[in-house]
Amino acid sequence: MRWILVDVVLALLALGVLAVLLLGLWRKVKALSRTVSAAGERIGRATDGLAVAQGAGPLGAPAARPSDAGRSSATPR
Predict the structure, then answer these.
(1) Contact 25, 17 (CB under 8 A)
(2) What mean pLDDT value characterizes the chain?
(3) What is d(CA 69, CA 77) in angstroms, rounded to the nearest whole number?
């Protein structure tokens, strides 16, 4: 009878340790999820800003006309 009681106590202690480890892991996963979500939002804003900047052309100038696309500035007209 004494050995059964010792086994039950050991099993309960093991379950308690497992519960503590799982709780710590759960908190870390939640924190990582928040970080990944914030990073995704920042990348989304940066992507939108890049699309706007590319639409404005180089250095914010209007986009080049299609007829000027093959010419360089050193080419005489």
Answers:
(1) no
(2) 85
(3) 13
Q: Is the dihedral of CA 29, 35, 37, 39 positive or negative?
A: negative
Any residues with CB less than 8 A from the CB of 21 and at least 6 apart, and which?
A: none
* Interval 26-57: pLDDT, tens: 999 999 999 999 999 999 999 999 999 888 87
DSSP state of 66: G
pTM for this predicted structure:
0.55
- Residue 33's H or E segment, with its range, is helix 2-56
Where are the chain's structural domains?
21-52
